[in-house]
Design brief:
Layout lengths: L3 H18 L8 E5 L5 H10 L3 E4 L2 H11 L4 E4 L8 H7 L2 E5 L2 H11 L6 E7 L15 H8 L5 E8 L11 H15 L10 E3 L6 H6 L4 E4 L1 H4 L5
Parallel strand pairs: 1-2, 1-8, 2-3, 3-4, 4-5, 5-6, 6-7
Length: 230
């Protein structure tokens, strides 16, 4: 049986050590415990151990879990979002990490207007140009931000990426560094609703490298909850 609490503490220690190596405040990195396929009991164990942010891949699965756990944690959508699920996503999640088109932004904007606060979103970047992954190419991000800047109800709070698989964690470093540099470049001309404060990058196999390169959010599943269930 997976010791979720022990794993959570170990991940926290590794994040803190990576932040200190980079001369950063460990408090500037938020750990999102990714609970895809995991039962409510495992999520509750993570929350009891100190997790404040839970990430889910699918709207329907998350809705069932949120219905049982409620607001004991902040909920993040980290999986691809279809437009026909935008209304439910806007209701359920504090932050959506996978905005990658004007059409999806428009759908979220319409439903975000019903909220008391703007809906926080991240633009997903396909940093490796992989045809099998969603996300937008870095060269197209500027025009997308300009279009999203015209949409009410949205706060474009940063960028997210999943680098191509590589033989070691170090293989991802150039992608993480590239995302940080892209964010810094975009900030100069970003619209007023795009503060671009967040960099969501790094998962169980490479989150320490991501922290060293400036991640403000790391999405960690297996290192906390154990192997995913089918």
């Amino acid at each position: 049986m997976t010791d979720v609490a022990s794993n959570w503490r170990a991940v926290c220690a590794r994040v803190a050590a990576a932040a200190r190596r980079a001369g950063r405040d460990p408090g500037g990195v938020r750990i999102i415990a990714v609970s895809k396929t995991k039962p409510v009991e495992a999520i509750e164990a993570a929350i009891a151990a100190g997790a404040t942010d839970i990430g889910e891949n699918y709207v329907q699965e998350a809705a069932a879990k949120i219905g049982r756990i409620g607001t004991a944690a902040r909920w993040h959508l980290i999986g691809h979002l279809q437009r026909n699920k935008a209304v439910r996503a806007a209701e359920l999640f504090e932050l959506i990490h996978t905005l990658d088109s004007v059409a999806l932004g428009e759908a979220l904007s319409r439903h975000a207007l019903r909220r008391a606060q703007p809906l926080r979103v991240l633009v997903e970047i396909n940093s490796g140009g992989e045809a099998t992954k969603s996300g937008i190419a870095p060269v197209h991000v500027g025009p997308l931000l300009a279009a999203l800047g015209l949409l009410p109800g949205l706060l474009i709070d940063g960028l997210m990426t999943i680098p191509p698989p590589g033989p070691t964690a170090e293989s991802a470093r150039r992608h993480f560094r590239g995302l940080r540099e892209l964010r810094d470049q975009l900030r100069r001309d970003a619209p007023s609703n795009a503060p671009l404060r967040e960099l969501s990058m790094g998962m169980s196999d490479d989150f320490e490298v991501a922290v060293e390169e400036g991640a403000t959010m790391v999405r960690v599943g297996r290192a906390i909850f154990g192997e995913r269930e089918a």
